[in-house]
Amino acid sequence: MNEIMKNRMLYLIFAIILILPFVLQDVNFQHITIMFLIFAGLGEGWNIITGFTGQTSFGHAAFFGIGAYTSTIMFYKFGISPWIGMILGALFAAGISAVVSYPCFRLKGHYFAIATLAVAEIIKQLFVSWDYVEGATGISIPVKPDSFWMMQFHKSKIPYFLIAYVLFIVATLVAVAVEKNKMGYYLKAIRESHEAAEALGINTTRYKLYAMMISSAVTAVFGTLYAQYILYIDPFMVFGLDISMKIVLLTVLGGLGSVYGPIIGAAILIPLSEYTRVFLGGTGKGIDLMIYGALIVIVACFEPRGVLGLFRRTKKRGAQYAKTTA
Amino acid sequence: MMFLQVVLTGVLVGSVYSLVAVGLTLVWGLMDIINFAHGDMMMISMYTVFWLYTLLKFDPFVSLPISAGITALLGIVIYKLVIKRVVNAPGLMALLATFGLSLFIRNFAQFLWTPNYRFVGESILSGKRILIADIVIGLPQLIAALGSILMTLLIALFIKRTKTGKAIQATAQSRDIAELMGVNTEKVYAVTFALSGICVGVAGTLLSGIFPVYPEAGAMYGLLAFVIVALGGFGNIWGAFYAGILIGLTEALGGFYLGTQFKYALAFLIYLLVLQFRPKGLFGW
Amino acid sequence: MPRPLLEVQNLTMKFGSLVANDDVSFVVNEGEIVSLIGPNGAGKTTLFNCISGFYKPFSGKVIFDGKDITGKSTHQITSMGLTRTFQIVKPLKDMTVKENVLTGAFLHANSKREAENLTDQVLRMTHLWDKKDMLAGSLTIADKKRLEVARMLATKPKMIMLDEAMAGLNKTEIKEAMELCVNLNKNGMTLLIVEHVMEAIMPISNRVVVLNAGRKIAEGSPQQIINNEEVIKAYLGERYYAKSRQINGGI
Asked: Ranked by mean pLDDT, which of A45-49, A138-142, A252-256, C194-198 comes out on top?
């Protein structure tokens, strides 16, 4: 019963998001909703390995970049549809994440986190000095007429929004499916205690690997979408620590380990960063990021359990109140 | 000869890395907090030296106590205002706070002083160099390295010998038990942040004569310091020291033989390789 | 003729130069309750860790259900039907009691529904049903130990190993734990118990194995053990002797 109720909440959120860009037909606002969907989706992916499984990744930009570069290069060099690039990118990301994280899974806690950061930085450096992918210059995606197959739309942002929306829902439902099934329980057991998980018959390495592969595939998908939306990528932009950390920040802010966390976090952080950028970024003096940073600090200091923690606490208090008065 | 020159350069650079990492490992080992703003504190020290030089014609070496004092103070302020509130927060919330702090400090610097590169023109050392056989050693680099090593030594002695240092060690083992033993752990945390600030303050001062001063100046050092701290083993001062030298060497040798564009990638690669054999860092247990 | 379920053969475990287990051999037959006792530092927990795959033994063999499990990983050993609890309990803190048990139940279940049915069954058997929606982290120590057992039972083991499952419990709780062991044994479960609480396990054990300083110094029925000179000298002492009389009289 409880589970159905919870899912209803999720569908309600999906419905509200869908009407947003049609209610407020402002280009800026539509842009923010697209960015919100991309980052909420990225958060859902990251949550699988870090929120559920407890393996902190500071290097998800690696998979984001792999997604972005795979589709972009296939399109740029061979004119292949980004949809095919998206699928291949997700597969690549899953494969590469498996190869690089397998040896890292022996590392515990922060040692693992720093290793993921190192992996992403290494991949970034390799792309910077790789001439075939235009190195540090980056790639401007050749402009083509509006087409779904080529994932390019110039007349309106609505098609991008719809694609982002569908991908976001897929990412969220993947997270829900993982969480509600055997795998979710296994991942959480690994998070809580490695030894206990092993004693329960869980092949911890294998499940961590599955979690990492699913997580990075989801991340790569949004990399492709991002590239097609911005129509330009370079290694610093898509492989940078900024992207990795933005995903971390919004999920932690919203609520780590909950499907709602990334949605809440992205709903706060993305408009905040985009609006400060629009209103204050023009000066080139960094006021926007300054305020953005300060607000993050304030939220972290006053709501150390994440926004979802705040909801839960108020709900609990309400429940306690109901109990005492009954 | 060239090889020796490169090795020496690596060791010199590595020594400064070590000092930055020592400051980070203190906080990390004690409070299990990843301080993303660590490199930005160093940048503040560099700006302090720059302004004292530009406005008051202070030589960087005269500014050293002032800039170290300012970063120490900054460390305490950061602890009191931010870290104190998140030190017991679950999950990665503390990290969120320090990341926000880093963004704030970096962009505050950009707001006040623009993103332009600035240089501390003349110091008593600039341009001076020592020649031993064919090996050239820049005096500023040499002093930076020696100063860093000295500072690391002082910090290590402080932790090992003084009462406060012992209180820090005890708190790192278990905060609750240290409290029971009568240690004021709040104070210990504040002191550790001040020490961490002094480390980057000194490192920043020593580097300001060699490198340009700009808001992102500390970013790469901060990032490398993460890797060095983990490579040395969290909370291990000498671990951080040797790991810093190792990373400096890797960078110099890798940069020389494979091309400078790969030097950071190699530093990160060394971390991944070493951790395969020592999953808790070189000196971790 | 009893069928041996677990055979430990000449097992030796070293940490550097420290020998934690020295040439230990014993057998646990199907349907038995065997206790492993010994003073602190005798190497009981190390032996558990070697059997359950957390450590790879330096030499020797562990045979379970006719298969060599030496050096196999813990999850493989659990899947084969041999599982354990931990001396220092490891509840999955942020999960509810029910979710804890359900995690174990997935091992041999083909569907979530099947796992849930098994979970309900185990929760009732271990008297945790009323607390099924509490977070595991908020349980009392007695309930946490019970949860360890419940979670383990959900993996449908053939044999379970309890590592000091009764330490820190009060008399009533110990009695409940004993009853649970006896009930499980009646339903065909084989048990290997490491315990300090002698009065609890002596009455329920079929056989007792005594370790001291890493070596096996005695093996036999509880009666034989409490009369064994060497054991008394090494470990039990007069104090226990008097106490056990008292307790046995009480039951």
From this structure: A45-49
Of C112 and C226, the structure prediction assigns the larger pLDDT to C112
Q: Judge: A182–C99 Cβ closer than 8 Å, yes or no.
A: no
Question: Chain A residues with CB inside 8 Å of C115's CB?
Answer: 182
User: φ and ψ at B254, to 5 degrees?
Assistant: -65, -45
Say how many domains are in chain A: 1
Which candidate from A126, A286, A302 shows the least CB-CB separation from B107? A286
Tell me the pTM: 0.89
**Can you give the residue range of the structural domain that contains A67?**
2-325
CATH number, domain at A88?
1.10.3470
Of C73, C106, C152, Cβ closest to residue A182: C106
Amino acid letter, residue A281: G
Structure token digits, residue A132? 């075939």
Q: Which residues of A touch B94 (CB under 8 A)?
A: 300
Yes or no: say if B31 and B192 are a contact pair by the CB < 8 Å rule. Answer: yes
- List of E strands, A228-290: 232-233
When the candidates are 1.10.3470, 1.10.287, 1.20.120, 3.10.50, the CATH number that belongs to B2-277 is: 1.10.3470
H-helix or E-strand spanning residue B96: helix B93-113
CA angle C104, C106, C111 (to 5 degrees): 155
What are chain C's domains?
4-81+158-250 (3.40.50.300), 89-156 (no CATH)
**Which helix (H) or strand (E) segment is B233 a member of?**
none
From the list C78, C93, C99, the residue facing A185 with the nearest CB is C99
The domain limits of chain B are: 2-277
Q: DSSP H helical segments within chain C, as ranges?
A: 44-51, 74-79, 97-105, 112-125, 141-153, 171-186, 198-201, 222-226, 229-231, 237-250
**CA C226/CA C223 separation, integer angstroms:** 5
Is the per-residue pLDDT at A90 higher than 90? yes
Report yes or no: B239 and B25 within 8 Å, Cβ to Cβ: yes
Contact: B268, A118; criterion CB under 8 Å: yes
E strands within chain A? Answer: 139-140, 232-233
The complex's ipTM works out to 0.87
Q: Which two tokens stand for residue B250?
A: 């890797």
DSSP SS3 for C217: strand
Residues on chain B touching A128 (C-beta within 8 angstroms): 261
Tokens of B23: 């400051």
Residue B214 has which token pair? 């700009």
Spatial CA neighbour of C82 closest among C65, C102, C96: C65
Average confidence score pLDDT of chain A: 88
Percent of chain B with pLDDT over 90: 45
Helices A158-180, A204-230: inter-axial angle, 10-degree rounding = 170
Mean pLDDT of the region B149-159: 92
